[in-house]
TrEMBL record:
Pathway the protein takes part in: Protein modification; protein lipoylation via endogenous pathway; protein N(6)-(lipoyl)lysine from octanoyl-[acyl-carrier-protein]: step 1/2
Gene3D superfamilies: Bira Bifunctional Protein, Domain 2
Protein keywords: Acyltransferase, Signal, Transferase
Residues in the signal sequence: 1-19
Enzyme Commission number(s) of this protein: 2.3.1.181
UniProt-listed HAMAP family: LipB
Protein family (similarity comment): Belongs to the LipB family.
Region (Disordered), start-end ranges: 30-54
Domain BPL/LPL catalytic: 91-274
UniProt name for this protein: lipoyl(octanoyl) transferase
GO MF annotation: an example: transferase activity
Organism: Aureococcus anophagefferens
Length: 293
């Protein structure tokens, strides 16, 4: 193991984790979706990623890790956990990052219409469609996709929403590089991370009082046919398709496999120390060795 990678273990602070309630109600949608012409959207403001310039002598901010990638989690449960952590952070609690693999669900950004939803959301037996508080358009979450929800007080890091988006993308770029895809990169026109001409990572965030929630996803091996029911992120899939990392690598990685690699990159990009309970620490360390060594 390299010295830089060994730093992952040295930077984890062992800490007990309390159980959190994961129970919330789905928001109803009142408008029926209709099939529309697929089209592209204008380029989004990009901003720049720049490393944080922390005082080398100062203690690094701590971020509590909640790794829930052992089995798929419903979107409602994930949202409830985020809201609990968000409220605690605003009240003076610490930062956290939640890693999950969701059950199949479509989500709409807070300002998105149903224009890019290509099924009748109100029809009996329709796929689950949830209005989220994040920015962005419609997307899909499901098995085979790693999702990270950082609950960070940006006043401890950098009060710049564009920088934060780029930092999340940088975390995924470094994760992909560590796994064998150094060509993964940001796009000059759109948010997210792209590999071999396909979008493998989507980002959508929200903030309250400079505390972040929602976050970023990384496609490992989701069922890509689910994207046929939407115009993903409002982008024409004939021109800017959705892809997956496993197909590019020829590997069979799961969200649980990739979680420790993502955390390593997250720790470096945000220049933080991670807090995790002893059992999760042992599990993350073993999974990380299995993937990278």
């Amino acid at each position: 193991m390299s010295a830089s990678r060994a730093g992952f273990l040295l930077s984890l602070v062992v800490r007990g984790a309390r159980a959190l309630s994961l129970d919330t109600a789905r928001r109803p949608l009142s408008t029926t979706a209709t099939r529309t012409t697929r089209k592209t959207v204008p380029a989004q403001a990009q901003g720049l990623y720049e490393p944080l310039d922390r005082d080398p002598a100062a203690a690094r901010p701590s971020v509590r890790v909640l790794d829930l990638t052992a089995s798929p989690v419903s979107y409602a449960d994930g949202a409830a956990l985020q809201h609990e952590l968000l409220a605690a952070n605003i009240a003076g609690g610490g930062d956290a990052v939640v890693l999950v693999e969701h059950e199949a669900v479509y989500t709409l950004g807070r300002g998105a219409t149903l224009e890019h939803v290509l099924f009748d959301a109100d029809a009996p037996g329709a796929p689950e469609l949830v209005r989220a508080e994040r920015g962005g358009d419609v997307t899909y979450h499901g098995p085979g996709q790693l999702v990270a929800y950082p609950i960070l007080d940006l006043k401890k890091h950098r009060k710049d929403s564009h920088w934060y988006l780029r930092a999340l993308e940088e975390t995924v770029v470094r994760t992909c590089a560590a796994l064998g895809a150094p060509e993964a990169a940001r796009s000059a026109e759109h948010t997210g991370v792209w590999l071999a001409g396909a979008k493998i990572s989507a980002v959508g965030v929200a903030m309250r009082k400079w505390v972040t929630y929602h976050g970023i996803s990384l496609n490992l091996a989701p069922d890509l046919s689910h994207y046929d029911a939407i115009v993903p992120c409002g982008l024409d899939p004939r021109v800017e398709p959705v892809g997956a990392l496993n197909a590019h690598l020829g590997r069979d990685l799961t969200p649980a496999d990739v979680a420790p690699v993502f955390l390593d990159a997250f720790m470096d990009v945000f220049d933080v120390q991670l807090q995790v309970d002893a059992d999760t620490l042992a599990s993350l360390s073993a999974r990380r060795r299995g993937v990278l060594e």
